[in-house]
Amino acid sequence: MDVLTILAAPQIQNIVVLIGIDIVVGILAALKNKEFVLGKLGGFMKKGIVAYVLGLGILMVVAEALPSLSLVVTVAYFLVILALIGSILDNLGKLGLPVPKMLRK
C-alpha cells in the first residue's frame, strides 16, 4: 500500500473533510469570542491532521500486513470520527448554537 492509496482511502478523506470543517468552525468561534490566536491553529494542524491522518494511515498499512488487526483500524476510525464530531459540536456551541452539553467534548 503506497501513500497515494492511503490518502485516497474514503476513511482518510472523511477525516480530512471533518478536520477542515472543525478548523473553519473553530476559527469562526474564536473570532466571534475574540480568542483567535494564530499559534493555536498551527498547534491543531500538528495535533489534528498529523495525528489522525498519519495514525490511521499507519494502522491501515499494519492491518494490511496483519489482517487480524483490521478491527483495530475500524475502531480507531470511529473513535477519530467521534472526536472530530465532538470538537465540531463544541465549536458550534461556542458560536452560540444550542448544542446539548453531553454532545460537546
From TrEMBL:
GO cellular component, one term: membrane
Predominant localisation class: membrane
Bilayer topology term: Multi-pass membrane protein
Superkingdom: Bacteria
Segments crossing the lipid bilayer: 12-31, 43-63, 69-92
Compartment(s) where it occurs, according to its Swiss-Prot or TrEMBL record: Membrane
UniProt keyword Methyltransferase, yes or no: no
One Pfam family per UniProt: Phage_holin_4_1
Keywords attached to this entry: Membrane, Transmembrane, Transmembrane helix
InterPro entries: Phage_holin_4_1
Protein's UniProt name: Holin
Organism: Candidatus Nealsonbacteria bacterium RIFCSPLOWO2_01_FULL_43_32
Lineage, broadest ranks: Bacteria, Candidatus Nealsoniibacteriota
